[in-house]
Amino acid sequence: MTLSRPPLLWVTGPLALAAVLLTASWLVAAPADLPEDVMMGKKVYEQHCQKCHGEGGWGDGPQAQWQYLPPVNFHAPSSRLKSDDELISVIEHGVIFSPMHSFRGTLNATEIQDVVAYIRLLSQRGR
To answer: N or C: where does the chain have the smaller number of CB atoms within 10 Å of the terminal CB?
Structure first.
């Protein structure tokens, strides 16, 4: 008599389901339930980023229409593939020949890291 191995889905299914549920609950969590860095990042984003990148991070803020280069859509694969260090560098130094100016001196290192955490949350949300 040979014992058959359970299908991989049976082994990984509960773990995968738990991971999805934990991630999904964090994405739809009430604002008070979000990690502190994300909450602080949301405040920074609303004050400094939302006017160009939009409320949902789609690059459709009220000032986007007047810019010669459109603001980054944080949902685009090219943006989602950037490392945290790359995003921090862009926020800190800006992008040459674009409306994205440097926030060095305006935001401290913690605020920049917090806004990156919030951008990561935005990039996972749908419309």
So the answer is: N
- pTM, full prediction: 0.72
Largest CA-CA distance found in the chain, in angstroms, rounded: 73
**Per-residue 3-state assignment (H helix, E strand, C coil) for the chain:** CCCCCCCHHHHHHHHHHHHHHHHHHHHCCCHHHCCHHHHHHHHHHHHHCHHHHCCCCCCCCCCHHHCCCCCCCCCCHHHHCCCHHHHHHHHHHCCCCCCCCCCECCECHHHHHHHHHHHHHHHHCCC
Q: What is the CATH classification number for the domain harbouring 76?
A: 1.10.760.10
What are the tens digits of pLDDT across the range 20-38? 444 444 444 445 577 899 9
Q: Quick check: is 29 in a domain? A: no
